[in-house]
């Protein structure tokens, strides 16, 4: 089975960039310790600071799905409920 790659685009509302960034940063150490997490890197757009992107790699889709149900993601959603403009996930497989 191929490694699952996730590209997540998160766009904060203009007045909530600092809050969203802070909450996203909290996810990094917790997620990197999860079973199956190979890569979990956060990026911020140089031209549009409200746009963030996670580049994630997971050993299996099933382990990523466990991640998506974890409490820290629920906490992120609650903390940023009115602060996120959009959140788009792409499940991808590397072409070799």
Short description:
By secondary structure, the chain is an alpha+beta fold.
Provide structural commentary:
With 96 residues, the chain is of the alpha+beta class. The protein is 34% helix and 35% strand. A four-stranded antiparallel beta sheet has the order 2-3-1-4. A hairpin with a 6-residue loop joins strand 2 and strand 3. Helix 1 runs antiparallel to helix 3.
Task: Please tag this protein with its features.
96 residues; alpha+beta; four-stranded antiparallel beta sheet; 4 strands
SSE order and pairing:
Layout: E1 4-12, H1 17-32, E2 37-44, E3 51-58, H2 61-68, H3 71-79, E4 84-92
Antiparallel strand pairs: 1-3, 1-4, 2-3
Helix pairs in contact: 1-3
What is the arithmetic mean of pLDDT?
A: 95
Q: Describe the global form.
A: globular
Summarize the main sheet.
4 strands, antiparallel
Class by alpha and beta content? alpha+beta
Task: Give me the number of helical elements.
Answer: 3
Write out the strand line-up for the largest beta sheet, numbering strands in chain order. Answer: 2-3-1-4
**First-residue to last-residue Cα separation:** 13 Å
**Beta fraction:** 35-45%
Radius of gyration: 13 Å
Order of helices and strands: EHEEHHE
